[in-house]
Amino acid sequence: MKRRLGLLTDISPLREQPQFRRLFAGTALSGIGSALTSFAVPLQVYDLTHSSFAVGAIGAVTVVPVLAVGLIGGTVLDAVDRRKLVLACTSALAVISAALAALALAGLAAVWLLYVLAAAIAAISAINIPARRTFVASLLPAGSLAAGLALNRLSLQLTMVVGPTLAGLITAAAGGHLQACYLIDTVSFAAALYGVARLPAMPPQAGAPRPGLRAVAEGVRFIRRSQVLAGVFLADLNAVVFGLPVALFPAINAERFGGRPATLGLFTAAIGVGGLVSSALTGPVSRVVRQGLVMLATVVIWGAAFAGFALARSLWLTLGLLAVAGAADTFTVVFRSTIVQAETTEALRGRLTTAEYVMSVGGDSLGRLESGAVGSLTSPAFAALSGGLATVVLAGVIGIALPGFARYRARSAPRPSPQSLPDTDASAAQPAAGG
């Protein structure tokens, strides 16, 4: 029984840290609300245009502000009180959701305006999400950091499954109208604000640089000087740029399974289910010592699973391999975030956390472009196979070229944090019961 429980996600940070518990609960509830808007905007664009290209253009108008704002946004995180910054960003996002609801209620249908609001959400999120991620290292000791990040990953996976499902049910109950999704998202920001409002102040370190390109360059130099951090970023980029064949899913589905929409939906769902199951079984991550080596191993599993997907012919084997890839991705992300937070100084935490976020978003876009281009020049199956095998080989090359990363051992000493203050809330003496 103890061994089985040891596999489950470690919830001790929720029991022992009231501040983290409130942050976790508020972020989770607001995340589901945000998923409703993420569902509603593309559907509203399609309803207005009946164009898949118009829906795809949402990605183009959102990735640019993420990359542009993210580069400078990290320097802002290190120069201001992050708690106040997140409160401001969260309030701004609530206003945008309210604007979307008002437009939908008034029947003011304008695709360009939806694009503008979607771009604004992406730009603000490029600051808000990394800033929230820095809170975990400030609130938890080093020994609980991996467990806290694993809990965040579990929350994200649940949001990815629950959010779209709930959005579909709400939209159907409302007769196809999307106002309810936007309104619920607007209200859900109250939970996010509550989770952050009672955190202690998180002012910048003394001598923090002014936001700008010079501060960005300082963060880049910090990464380049560290084999561990360089290895983390390169390993993750390798996985998403070469190993992610999402752009090939429609073509492979058409070749092997008749192009049925339901089957195509199962491809993405299988990755999500694998990630959700593994997110609930992250108990051992807190006990992993060789985190760099294990991260490389999970990248290898990710690449090998997609290589197998390229060769699979039966639907069940295809879905099983995609689920394995999703499971490996969960552990890769948890170890990536744990190492970045553990190896980053407080003065640079905002910049490196933002770099991690921008890398994830930008790498995903590059991966779709790479796999789509190779698939067009050769075949979808070859593109998926070569990308998966390249991921496996390059993971080995990274481990050899950066031995400091492969030998990296987790930090276990508690991290003193001036921001992690005793909590006088009565809930501090009680175990977590639903956040």
Blueprint (SSEs and pairs):
Layout: H1 2-7, H2 12-16, H3 18-49, H4 52-77, H5 82-106, H6 111-139, H7 142-173, H8 179-197, H9 213-225, H10 227-242, H11 249-257, H12 261-279, H13 291-311, H14 315-343, H15 349-377, H16 380-401, H17 403-406
Helix pairs in contact: 3-4, 3-6, 3-7, 3-8, 4-6, 4-15, 5-6, 5-8, 6-15, 7-12, 7-14, 10-13, 10-14, 10-15, 10-16, 12-14, 13-14, 13-16, 15-16
What does this protein structure show overall?
This protein has 435 residues and is mostly helical. The protein has helices at residues 2-7, 12-16, 18-49, 52-77, 82-106, 111-139, 142-173, 179-197, 213-225, 227-242, 249-257, 261-279, 291-311, 315-343, 349-377, 380-401, 403-406. It has two domains: 1-207, Up-down Bundle (Growth Hormone, Chain: A); 212-411, Growth Hormone, Chain: A. Helix 7 crosses helix 14 (315-343).
Order of helices and strands: HHHHHHHHHHHHHHHHH
- Largest beta sheet, briefly? none
In what range is the share of β-strand residues? under 5%
- Count of the separate structural domains: 2
Q: What fold name goes in the CATH topology slot of the largest domain?
A: Growth Hormone, Chain: A
Distance between the termini: 25 Å
CATH superfamily of the largest domain: MFS general substrate transporter like domains
Helix content: over 70%
Overall pLDDT confidence: 82
| CATH class (first level) name of the largest domain | Mainly Alpha
Evaluate the radius of gyration: 21 Å
Structural class by sheet pairing and helices: mainly alpha
- The coarse silhouette is globular
Count every beta strand, where a strand is a DSSP E run of 2 or more residues: 0
Number of helices: 17
What is the CATH architecture descriptor of the largest domain?
Up-down Bundle
Which blocks of ≥5 consecutive residues have pLDDT under 50?
A: 1-5, 413-435
